[in-house]
Amino acid sequence: MTVKTAPVRAKKHVNPMNRQSPGDKVISVITYLVYACFAFVCAYPFYYIIINSISSNTLSERGKVLFWPMEIHFKNYSRMSTIPGLLDAAKISVLRTAVGTVLTVLIAAFLGYMFTRETLWKRRLWFRFVAVTMYFNAGIIPWVLCMRNLGLANNFWGYIFPMVVQPFYIILCKTYCESVPRELQEAAEIDGAGTLKVFFRIMIPVIKPILATIAIFAAVNQWNSFQDNLLLMTNRPDLDTLQYKLYQYITQANSLKALVSNTTNSNAVMASLATAATATSIRMSVTVVVVLPIMMIYPFFQRFFTKGIMIGAVKG
């Protein structure tokens, strides 16, 4: 005797919104609208700068370009590529960002790891000694005098060494290293691994999320910095960074034509830029050049960012 069974029907997917009460739906809609407005406020300035940099310079100067590009052209960027010294400044910026980011990440990771080891002599004292620098600053003038006495003025390493040790990054690494099981380190030490071998073979692969987070912070900091260029590189124009060059063009945008009229014949390229472009087009174009590289790098590290920055936020 066979028993007939009723066919099993596949359950229909029910939208979570349909299971909510009317009040919950209203709250959800309001939440989506608020976040949509917030996203628009964050994204629109970048969009506004980009569309104004590729629109008609005359319309952009008059404030007519608001939501859509008008009379699209890319002459602003082609003129910028001919500015003397701009390419060399870009190379210096890329070099300082790459070298500074690597050294900052390595030192933050190593010090953060060492501050978790109980065998480190007076580790609590050294950690507090590093952390206290987050709250006290001698000021710009003593800093400049110190850099000159150390021989870092008019020196490429003046971009790197002052920014290598960052207490905030060290604290992030220390917190992350404390979440790593001690058994991993103890097993490696039993097998004869020393401090450096444990750090490079065990800790570095495990703490990659926080290293990626610190790399984002350090790269943005190095890429956007221009004050050290202004204060230290007074006699080395060959060490000027891209941001410092663009800062000069932005601050001189309104009076660029007057400045060009007083320049020598060797600056004919700048003269053509001044007569063809407007102050607004210069500002918009150089701002895109500054922001775009970091915007292109960030998506590659985004998947590590949330996990790395939230380590230590929840205890227990």
Output the CATH topology of the largest domain.
MetI-like fold
β-strand percent reads under 5%
Number of strands: 0
- Gyration radius (Cα, Å) is 27 Å
Number of helices: 15
Which term fits the overall shape?
globular
Main sheet characteristics:
none
The figure for the number of domains is 2
CATH homologous superfamily classification of the largest domain: MetI-like
Find the structural class using helix and strand composition: mainly alpha
Percent range for helical residues? 55-70%
Give the N-to-C terminal Cα separation.
Answer: 59 Å
Q: Give start-end ranges of low-pLDDT stretches.
A: 257-275, 312-316
Level-2 CATH architecture of the largest domain:
Orthogonal Bundle
Instruction: Report the top-level CATH class of the largest domain.
Output: Mainly Alpha
Average pLDDT figure: 76
Elements, N to C (H/E): HHHHHHHHHHHHHHH
Q: Any overview of this molecule?
A:
By secondary structure, this protein is mainly alpha-helical. The chain folds into two domains: 17-74, no CATH class; 84-251, MetI-like (MetI-like fold, Orthogonal Bundle). Helices cover 65% and strands 0% of the residues. The N and C termini lie far apart (59 Å).
For this entry, give a set of tags.
316 residues, mainly alpha, MetI-like fold, 2 domains, 65% helix, 0% strand, disordered C terminus
Write the layout of secondary structure elements.
Blueprint: H1 22-53, H2 57-61, H3 75-80, H4 86-114, H5 123-131, H6 140-149, H7 167-178, H8 182-190, H9 195-206, H10 208-224, H11 227-232, H12 242-251, H13 256-261, H14 268-276, H15 279-310
